[in-house]
Structures are given as C-alpha cells and as structure tokens.
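Dear colleagues,

As part of the handover before I leave the project, I'm documenting each prediction I ran so the next person doesn't have to rerun anything. This entry is a single chain, and its sequence is reproduced below.
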Amino acid sequence: MKILMVCLGNICRSPLAEGILKSKLPQDLFTIDSAGTSNYHQGNPPDIRSINIARAHNINIVNQRARQFKVEDFDVYDLIYAMDSSNYKNITRLARTASDKSRVKLILNEITEFKLKDVPDPYYDQENGFLNVYKMLNIACDNIAKKIHNDSF
C-alpha cells in the first residue's frame, strides 16, 4: 500500500506525518511519502523545527525533500491525506475521476473525537505549534496504522 501526506509547502506538516506514519508501519509492506500543493520549497529539507520535534520523538526526517503534488500521484498512491481543507480542495481540483477524488482524505477525520478538522500550519508559530501539530498527527497516524494494519493482515 502506498500513502501520500500533503500540506502546502511540504516542509512542516506533511514531512512530520510521513515520518510518524513510517515509524508505525512496516517499511517492506508500505510506502509513505509526502508532497506540497505549492512549489515554494521544492527540493528543500523539512523546516528545522519539524526536524527537531521529530528527532525529539526518535523519528528521523532529515533526508526528506519537498516536492510538489502532481496529477500522476493519483496513479501511484492508494491513499492521499491532506493536512487541511484548503489543500484538500487543491488536490481534489486536480482529480481526473471520482476514483482519484475518493483516495483523498482529511487526516484529522481519522480522529473522530476531534472537532478540529484542519491541522494548523505551524510555520509562523513558535516551537509549541510544532509540538501541537506533532501530537495531532501522532494520534491520527496511530488510527491510520491500526485501521490499515487490521485491513491488511
């Protein structure tokens, strides 16, 4: 199974989500990647604050590089998780078919008890913004991993 995490610039939220989910699923059975709906940071590593919060939780994301989401990603990935409703709309606008669109989900919809459905962008926030995002994504990725693992085995 192949899963793609998507945010705006692919340097804060989606690299964290990629790293977190990779830490919860066997790498030989699952491919997890990330992308951004913009090309602002293409080729850049994740924001140092994302790297640091991941490292504090024993997750290494330093080798990731930002890339832009492309229509062909619908042909590669089984599930595409958007970090917020704005990116969800940007991704689904590129969908060619109902099947393409059905692969796209809001990641916080994986946490039923959350009222918040958009992962806040911590880019202009202080360090605790990144910690809060990490905590949200960790819960969502736990739920994704449990659901996928149960369906796959």
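Helices lie at 13-24, 48-56, 73-76, 85-93, 98-102, 127-152. Strands lie at 2-7, 31-36, 79-82, 104-106.

All the best with the project,
I.
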